[in-house]
Amino acid sequence: MTALIYLFLLSFENSQVQCSILSALSNASSLTLVSPSVFEDVVPKVLQHDLLRCGTFSKLKLLHLGEWFSTRGYYPLICLLRRSPAIEKLVLQLDKSGDDDYETLPNADAEIDPPCNEAVTTFSCEKLRKIRILCDLRNDKRAQVIVGILSAHLCPLPDIKIKPIITIEV
């Protein structure tokens, strides 16, 4: 089963909505969860609440995440990887809007590169072979932060490639 979910501010009434989106998708073999920007508050909060309740994604081979994964010190990303023992490929999509927001925030560095916890635990995603980070190669500082976070948590570290995000301008 393949699931493609695009969530935005109006997808939920507020951030306190109790839903089970992730649990309902736990049998997916391919899962795409995107939302416009990490700085949109509602979607990340709803999905983070759901992460606490969801089980293992035992069939998941491909995971494609939008910017919401980078909230709370990348907790959603690490949590999903820990719960995806069969994952083979990970695609992380950093939209230009999040980079623009990053540049204008007064505490942007603290938001994007939170202080490391004293006890960083590593874990293995034995089948994970490819990680692709899609972003603006010229200006986006977030890709290197993500590589650092992944290298602190994943052992062994799979092949990581940073590629340009393709945008169509009209």
From TrEMBL:
The keyword Signal applies. Keywords: Signal. InterPro entries: F-box_SCFL_complex_component. Residues 1-19 form the signal peptide. PANTHER family: OS08G0149100 PROTEIN (PTHR34223:SF14), OS11G0201299 PROTEIN (PTHR34223). This is FBD domain-containing protein. It comes from Urochloa decumbens.
